[in-house]
Structure formats: C-alpha cells, structure tokens
UniProtKB/TrEMBL annotation:
This is Trk system potassium uptake protein TrkA. PANTHER family: POTASSIUM CHANNEL PROTEIN 2-RELATED-RELATED (PTHR43833), TRK SYSTEM POTASSIUM UPTAKE PROTEIN TRKA (PTHR43833:SF8). Residues 10-130 form the RCK N-terminal domain. GO terms for molecular function: potassium ion transmembrane transporter activity. Keywords: Ion transport, Potassium, Potassium transport, Transport. The keyword Transport applies. InterPro entries: K_uptake_TrkA, NAD(P)-bd_dom_sf, RCK_N, Trk_Ktr_HKT_K-transport.
Length: 152
C-alpha cells in the first residue's frame, strides 16, 4: 500500500470528491503552494484538474477506512469533503474529526436545513444554497442603495 503523505510546505490538505468544486479547490490550493491530495473513485474526474496541478490524486473510495489511512489522514491539517452526497459528506466529516482527530474538517451540504444541525455538532459546513441566497441579498441591497443614490 503506497503512502501518499507529504509535507513539503507544512500544510497537508485532503480533498474528497473531484467534481467541479473539488477540482477548483485543489487547483487553487496547489497554485498557492499547499500540499494537496484529492481522492475520487472515478478516475475520469481527475481530468477536471488543471495541467499545472502539483498535488497528488488517489483513485479510490474515500469512504474506505484503509484508503483514508493510506492517504495519511492522521497527518492532514485539513480535510475538505465535497462529494455529491450530503450523507456521505457528513459521515466522512464525523470520521475525520472523531476517529482521525483532524483539526480542520469542512463538508459541503446541499440541504440548507441540515446546515444548522451539523454546525451545532462542530462540523464546519458550506451550503451553496445559503451562500447564494446571502450573495443575492447583498447584490439586491447594493442595487437598492445605488437606486437611492441616483434618486437624490
């Protein structure tokens, strides 16, 4: 079993899920000089990574305990879980936090009703629906302010 752990720059990040968000995040972190390992069970998913991606890929099931150990999850500074399934993301977040004692764990959730619940358990979450609603509200507020300024 090959160990994927590396700590060249001192910060080791594991991303589980190489969809659009996972790939973009991996590319960004890699470009910023962070050590990144991205895990996905679909080998074709890694095509989304940029040619300049300097991290590592692991074609495996990120829900498998042995795969997480192989990835060096115990030494990870952060684990970011962005699969397309809320239940998988939360389960992996709990495993990373409770079993492997990873300090920084972030999970994407699609269901905004679950967001508050998991935050109460100390799991950092990102919910696209909530973020989008906040951004739209902010843009509407800016537009209203602009209209008021023009009216004066």
């Amino acid at each position: 079993m090959k160990k994927y752990l590396f700590k060249v720059h001192g910060t080791y990040n594991i991303i589980i899920g190489c969809g659009r968000l996972g790939a973009n995040l991996a590319n960004t972190l890699s470009d910023e000089g962070f050590d990144v390992l991205i895990i996905d069970r679909d080998k074709d998913a890694f095509r989304k990574l940029s040619p300049s991606f300097g991290g590592l890929t692991l074609n495996a099931d990120g829900t498998d305990y042995d795969v997480l150990q192989e990835a060096g999850i115990q030494q990870a500074n952060a684990v970011i879980i962005v699969t397309n399934n809320d239940n998988t993301n939360i389960m992996l977040a709990q495993i990373a936090r409770e079993i492997f004692k990873v300090e920084r764990v972030i999970a994407r959730l699609y269901d905004p009703e679950r967001d508050c619940i998991y935050r109460e358990f100390g799991i950092d979450t990102i919910c696209p629906a909530i973020l989008s609603a906040k951004e739209i509200d902010k843009l509407l507020g800016q537009a209203a302010a602009h209209i008021r300024e023009e009216a004066v």
